[in-house]
Amino acid sequence: MSQIDPLVSVSVVHCGPNRRLCAPRPRAVSAGEPPAEALRLRIVRLRAGARLPERQSALASGFDLHACLDGGTLALGTRPVLVPTGLAIAAPAGADVQIRPRSGLLARGVIAGLGTLDADYRGEVFVTMYCLTEPGHYEITDGERIAQLVVARLAAVAWDEVDALPPTARGGSGHGSTGRA
Length: 181
Description:
The chain has 181 residues and is mostly beta strands. The protein has a domain at 49-153: Distorted Sandwich (Deoxyuridine 5'-Triphosphate Nucleotidohydrolase, Chain A), CATH 2.70.40. It has one helix spanning 103-106; strands at 8-14, 39-45, 63-66, 73-76, 81-90, 95-100, 110-112, 115-117, 124-131, 138-141, 145-153. A five-stranded mixed beta sheet has the order 1-2-5-9-7, with no helix packed on it. A four-stranded antiparallel beta sheet has the order 3-11-6-8, with no helix packed on it. It has a two-stranded antiparallel sheet with strand order 4-10. The relative contact order is 0.19.
C-alpha cells in the first residue's frame, strides 16, 4: 500500500475493477507545531500499472513519480521525450504542484525538466526527460522513479507597478554575482 502524507491528502480513483479510497498514514507532529490543513488533490490511475506518487522518507519534501510504460522501456537521448506516469491529478486552486528532477538521475546526466501542474489541467501527467551529451543515452524501465512532485501553497500576490525599485547592496548584479559559498 502506498504511503500518503495527510499534509497532502490524496483522493485515489482507480480506473478498473479494483476501486478503493486510499487513507492517509499518520504523521508525527513536533511539539508546539500547529497541525496544517491538508491540501486535497484528486488522482486517477489511467492505466493498471500506474503507481501513486510516494515519499521515500518521512521528511522528504517530494513525492516520487514513476514511469508507466506498460511493462516496457523507453530510450532517452539528447532530445526531450515525454515520459508517461499513467496518472491524472486535479490540484485545487491555491496549490503549487511542481515536477522536479531527482538528484540521483541528475548525477548521472539524466534530466527531468521542471514543470507545473495548473489547477485546471486534467490530462495525464508527463515528465519531459532527456540526457546530457554525456552519457547521451539512458533507458527508463517501467515503474522507475523518474521525477519528484512537490506540492506547496501559493502566496496571494498583488503587483504594484512603480517608477523605480528601492536600492540594495546587490543592485542589478545577478547570475553568479554573489560568488561561491
